[in-house]
Write a structure and sequence with these properties.
Layout lengths: L2 E2 L12 H11 L9 H21 L6 E4 L2 H16 L6 E5 L4 H12 L3 E5 L9 H7 L4 E5 L13 H10 L3 E5 L11 H4 L3 E5 L10 E5 L14 H4 L7 H39 L3 E3 L10 E6 L4 H10 L2 E2 L15 H5 L4 H4 L2 E5 L6 H22 L6
Parallel strand pairs: 1-11, 3-4, 3-5, 5-6, 6-7
Antiparallel strand pairs: 2-8, 7-8, 9-10, 10-12
Bound molecules: pyridoxal-5'-phosphate (PLP).
């Protein structure tokens, strides 16, 4: 039996999603821009998914823009707003050091084109203080981008408070909600943001489908130019089958949010306390209260996280050292680094992320295997262990 505890990298499909994707691929193959019956059937399928996502976010369907996923949504949010505001005197962008690379590298690209960028500092909690934003924001700030939940440690940012500060200064507010949508309630009106990114494959939908929610009236330039798709906001023939799968995943997430959140949260807590008890020299990274229910990130003293990841994989247990994009390299976690942790801690931490098909048996198996594997690795390093 293999254990998959890497749901923040990607998730298996929810029941019904694969059937829908296959059925729509075969039966609803029209181009949603065509005016004949086949095109209108595709448009109706997309509109159904649009309504499902809008309901999940408390948004209006006309504000939903389908994209290829979280990375494209983040790019469209930041580049699209920046380009729209390029004519004004606002040439400053703000984010935090713990954003996903989709945000950080987009900011770096804009910095090369003359934009001033500021990354807000964080402490060991992994939660940004609104005061840090007050210190950094000025009349030049065009956009503030702060993620809702972090992909490595799961902490939830005070997005509503940050959005209020951004708006006081006339700046737009974007949040990357790729790791919160489907796990906790996400209400665009309550968050008070202008732009919100999500990705289907992070909540049991198919890969290659995402959304940028754009508040009505927000000035944006498209980044993918071409036809008039998605109300001129994202050109290109839509991936109707994947969008339909996204809609099914959204409806299921909305229906099961409370029960699944509680179930997965209890499993995560059992895993976390089990590991802290069974393995000396362990600690949780980041605040434990304001977190999505499925994620824990644990530091193992005197253990190379990559070695532990491989040892676990050999036992059939899949976890992660951080974001999937940086795995396969020995780069320390930029998230833990931005939180001020010393180099050894950024390299001895593992992320466990649970989800829809996780069970108590799997949790107990991981808690059972870890002390043996950690002891072995610590023996190999021949260093004394401090509990
Ligand atoms: C916080 C966050 N933002 C953006 C992305 C990118 O999403 P996608 O894989 O759909 O491009 C990810 C995926 O790892 C993520 O965790």
């Amino acid at each position: 039996m293999r254990v998959y505890f890497d749901y923040n990298a990607t998730t298996p499909l929810a029941p019904g999603v694969a059937d829908t994707v296959l059925r729509v691929s075969q039966e609803v193959f029209g181009n949603a821009s065509s005016i004949h019956h086949f095109g209108q059937a595709a448009k109706a399928t997309m509109d159904e998914a649009r309504s499902a996502i809008a309901a999940l976010l408390n948004a209006d369907p006309s504000e939903i823009v389908f994209t290829s996923g979280g990375t494209e949504s983040d790019n469209l949010a930041i580049r699209g707003a920046a380009e729209a505001l390029e004519q004004t005197s606002r040439r400053h962008l703000i984010a935090t050091g713990i954003e996903h690379e989709a945000v950080l590298n987009t900011l770096r690209a804009l910095a090369r084109r003359g934009w001033r960028t500021t990354l807000l500092p964080l402490d060991h909690t992994g939660i940004v203080s609104p005061d840090r934003l007050r210190d950094a924001i000025d009349a030049d700030t065009a956009l503030v981008s702060v993620m809702h939940a972090n992909n490595e440690i799961g902490t939830i940012q005070p997005v509503a408070a940050l959005a209020a500060i951004a708006h006081e200064h006339g700046a737009l507010m974007h949040t990357d909600a790729v790791q919160s949508v489907g796990k906790i309630p996400v209400d665009v009106r309550a968050l008070g943001v202008d732009l919100l990114s999500l990705s289907a494959h992070k909540f049991n939908g198919p890969k290659g489908a995402g959304v940028l929610w754009i508040k009505r009236g927000t000035r944006m330039q498209p980044t993918v130019t071409g036809g008039k798709h998605e109300r001129n906001r994202r050109a290109g023939t839509e991936n109707v089958a994947a969008i339909a799968g996204l809609g099914v995943a959204a409806r299921l997430a909305a229906a099961k949010m409370d029960t699944e959140g509680a179930r997965v949260g209890a499993l995560r807590d059992r895993l976390e306390t089990g590991i802290l008890r069974a393995v000396p020299g362990t600690a949780v990274n980041g605040a434990r209260d304001a977190r999505v229910p499925n994620t824990t990130n644990i530091s193992f003293e005197r253990v190379e996280a990559e070695s532990l990841l491989i040892a676990l994989d050999l036992e059939g247990i899949a976890v992660s050292t951080g974001s999937a994009c940086s795995s396969g390299t020995l780069e320390p976690s930029h998230v833990l680094k931005a939180m001020g942790f010393p180099p050894h801690r950024t390299q001895n931490s593992l992320r466990f992320s649970l989800g829809m098909f996780s069970t108590q048996d799997e949790v107990d198996r991981v808690v059972d295997a870890l002390p043996r594997l950690v002891d072995k690795l610590r023996g190999l390093t021949r260093k004394p262990v401090t509990a």
